[in-house]
Amino acid sequence: MAVYHLAEGEARFAELIWEREPVGSTELVRLCGERFGWKKSTTYTVLKKLCERGIFQNQNAVVTALMSREEFYGGRSRQFVEETFGGSLPRFLTAFIGKKKLTDEQVEEMKRLIESYREAD
């Protein structure tokens, strides 16, 4: 299973790439210097780590995403439910909702969502 976790600095860096991609590696170094106070070596070290994890790629000095923001955070959410609730979506929803009451609109929206993912008979 892929590990969908980023340290705080890695997450800010990833967001910067997702906002700007495709971005030249020279431009990325400049942006990281401005935003995070990073040196060139720090930028390339973090980029290399995230490329090795399959999130980004750096080809011909152009950085692009191999995994979209939505794919990454979706995987992170699924991993959390798997690890914390044994993969049980009902257990997760029960914990998430807690003692709150759902509106009729929320209930109907959840029903439509469940129906759209139901296996065909």
Topology of this structure?
Layout: H1 8-20, E1 23-24, H2 25-36, H3 40-52, E2 56-59, E3 62-65, H4 69-85, H5 89-97, H6 104-117
Contiguous uncertain segments of 5+ residues: none
Work out the radius of gyration: 19 Å
Number of helices: 6
Tell me the distance between the termini: 29 Å
Shape type: elongated
Element-by-element helix/strand order: HEHHEEHHH
Give me the side-by-side strand order of the main sheet. Answer: 1-3-2
Secondary structure class reads mainly alpha
Average pLDDT, to the nearest integer?
93
Question: How is the biggest beta sheet arranged?
Answer: 3 strands, antiparallel
Describe this structure in words.
With 121 residues, this protein is mainly α. The chain contains 6 helices and 3 strands; from the N terminus they run αβααββααα. The protein has helices at 8-20, 25-36, 40-52, 69-85, 89-97, 104-117, and strands at 23-24, 56-59, 62-65. Strands 1-3-2 form a 3-stranded antiparallel sheet. The longest helix has 17 residues, at 69-85. The protein is elongated, with a radius of gyration of 19 Å. It starts with 7 loop residues before the first helix and ends with a helix. 12% of the residues are buried. The model has no long low-confidence stretch (mean pLDDT 93).
Main attributes?
8% strand, 6 helices, mainly alpha, three-stranded antiparallel beta sheet, 121 residues
